[in-house]
Here is the input.
Amino acid sequence: MTDIFENYLSSTGALSAEEINFSMQFFKPIRLKKGDFFIREDECCYDIGFIATGGVKAYAIDKEGKENITCFKFENEFVTSFPEFVTQEKSKRSITAIEDSVIFRISYPDYQFLLDKLTAWNGVIKLVMEQEYKQKERYLLNYNNRSAVEKYSHVLAGEQMLVQRVATQDLASYLGITQRSLTRAKRQIHKLNIL
Here is the structure.
């Protein structure tokens, strides 16, 4: 599993082999079973993690007790509640495993120490933040104010992994539609593909 993380860090081009070796001592692998929490809403956000295998969902619970999923993360992605990690405040959302996962996590104090010792890590963090921004922007452009059919069509065309790895109710929540609307959209698209 360590190889996956080391290969990712190497692929960024931001760190030398020596810097990667030095960095690895601060990241501890944890195994999460499907449904286990990485971060809990209303608890301080102490960690950032790199997903070596598996996947997670980030969500907040609304007043009716319903999950509102804001994103999914899979292999080769960093995961945390970024604003609260940086400010060391209580998280506004939970992050749980949707599959059995291995995540290399680093605590905030170790993260700060690493940034102080290796300024090259700023390049890695910049890449991670750019990726976060692009995902949020893509979400707003493709899923905001669209019909259920348009949303599901976009998932089929551009985010096939979600169809393959995410439960129907979670995908519906992420798209901001009901499970029933998602089922209807799937049927409608299937009919169009048959014709």
